[in-house]
Specification:
Largest sheet: 2 strands, antiparallel
Strand order of the largest sheet: 1-2
Strand content: under 5%
Shape: globular
Distance between the termini: 14 Å
Length: 476
């Protein structure tokens, strides 16, 4: 059965993050969305309180050094480092600091979403963070996940796609996640030197970053590039690293720990040919020239337009809308607000049927906002999202989380939402009347059946829980 929703409800819920009890439904929904561009804060209070990437990197590399020192001492004493208490304690301390940094950042992300008065742009931040997905499942990445969103995504969400792309690929979280810091040109100075002294330990090329940039971040799958293009791009990217990483070609005494650093001694020399274009060896500039062409290609424009239309309109995005958004991307050289404006003006985006099923992250935010929460209090955001099946910054794959209803609507997933809805409703107590709240959260979108179920509930808390798991509330 189709769920019909009003333009005001679409603006608040499909484009935004969910209405609050005291929100006034926008009289002009499109204007309400566009005005958020001027009021967006790239670094809101919750994120401003987080340590920056340099601080995180300094602590992270210092912890690695302590673990290495303990292992060395254990070996010197003929002890097994795996059983040595000093080594185990150093590793436990390091892991605890990494977990704390991750959980604090996850809390800040939710706090920002609850406090935001620019929920459309905040949703865009979440969209782009998932498009350029990292996964905190990888220990080296865990501590940097929050800084990645703060540094590489938030400042560029209303800018040019190319600028965001470069910021993302240079960030320590991405460089560590896709093993770029370990990629060494086979004919680089370091590789040739190692080949002379330790031929069995000669470092090699890593294609992870090159492949994911082409397949996921820019062109998309099956868009005409070949394995040879990926390999050539990986050669162009050699030398892209981060300061303080140590290992081949680097060291802990680098300036600006955690910052981007080009290491010419591991860069593969020579001209690279990618997708039929030749790129002269200009050091770091070689890969940047490739990124420019990828960022401005027709395939990238279509890939981005398709994903935006899928997120905001339908699992199967309307082809005509994708074409118009693709044209806006190309016409503006990837200026993202131009693309967003086409989306906002599109009749397809305002279709009355609620076709998009909320992900666990979306549903949690909209539930808390709907209950009037503007801060997280004592909530453990990371644990809650783990329980709901969408851990924060942990999709487990560079492809990010799925953006289609089928991925989130299983019976088990819905039961988890019911359980959390009951807890949240119990915490809200009797201060909110679900009968009065429902039409405020979903203006002109509440079905007769849901209204009746809420009205007949045996308690205020039960009525609130029914509202939060109603078909209308779970879709946008």
């Amino acid at each position: 059965m189709a769920i019909l929703i009003s333009p005001a409800s679409i603006a608040l819920n499909r484009f935004g993050l969910g209405a609050r009890p005291d929100d006034v439904p926008p009289a002009d929904p499109k204007r309400w969305l566009l005005r958020q561009f001027d009021r967006y804060e790239p670094r809101p209070a919750a994120f401003s309180a987080l340590p920056d990437a340099a601080t995180l990197a300094t602590d992270y590399f210092a912890d690695l050094a302590q673990v290495a020192q303990a292992r060395k001492a254990a070996k010197a004493a003929d002890a097994d480092p795996k059983k040595d208490m000093a080594t185990q304690d150093a590793r436990k301390d390091a892991n605890a600091r990494i977990r704390d940094a991750y959980r604090t950042a996850a809390d800040a992300r939710m706090a920002s979403a609850l406090a935001s008065d620019t929920p459309f742009v905040e949703r865009l931040v979440h969209f782009w963070a998932n498009h350029f997905a990292i996964s905190a499942d990888k220990p080296q990445v865990t501590a940097f996940a929050g800084a990645f969103e703060a540094d590489a995504i938030r400042p560029h969400v209303l800018g040019r796609f190319e600028d965001m792309l470069i910021a993302v690929e240079r960030h320590p979280a991405m460089l560590l996640y896709l093993d770029q810091a370990r990629s060494v040109g086979p004919d680089s100075r370091v590789a040739l030197r190692v080949a002379q002294t330790r031929p069995d330990k000669r470092p090699g090329l890593n294609e992870n970053l090159a492949r994911e940039i082409m397949e996921l971040h820019t062109l998309g799958v099956r868009t005409g590039y070949a394995q040879a293009d990926v390999t050539e791009f990986a050669r162009a990217l050699t030398g892209w690293s981060l300061a303080g990483a140590g290992g081949t070609g680097g060291g802990v005494n680098d300036p600006d720990p955690g910052g981007f650093l080009f290491r010419p001694n591991i860069h593969e020399p020579g001209t690279r040919t990618i997708l039929g274009n030749a790129y002269a060896d200009e050091g770091e500039g070689q890969a940047r020239a490739v990124l420019h062409d990828l960022a401005t290609s027709a395939a990238t424009a279509r890939h981005i337009a398709t994903k935006l239309a899928r997120h905001f309109v339908a699992d199967d995005p309307p082809p005509a809308l994708v074409e118009r958004m693709t044209a806006a991307f190309r016409r503006s050289d990837g200026d993202l607000p131009n693309v967003y404006r086409v989306l906002i003006e599109a009749p397809e985006a305002w279709a009355a049927g609620a076709t998009k099923f909320k992900s666990p992250w979306d549903w949690t935010i909209s539930s808390l906002r709907g209950l009037g929460r503007r801060d997280i209090g004592q909530m453990d955001v990371a644990s809650i999202q783990n329980q709901l099946g969408q851990p924060v910054w942990r999709p487990g794959s560079p492809a990010g989380y799925d953006d289609i209803s089928a991925s989130w609507a299983s019976p088990d997933a819905l039961m988890r939402r019911v359980e959390l809805a009951q807890r949240l409703a119990a915490q809200a107590g009797e201060r909110l009347d679900a009968r009065a709240l429902a039409p405020r959260l979903m203006p002109a979108a509440l079905s007769t059946a849901t209204a009746a179920a809420i009205a007949q509930a045996d308690s205020g808390a039960t009525a609130l829980a029914l509202l939060l798991v109603s078909p209308e509330f779970q879709r946008r």
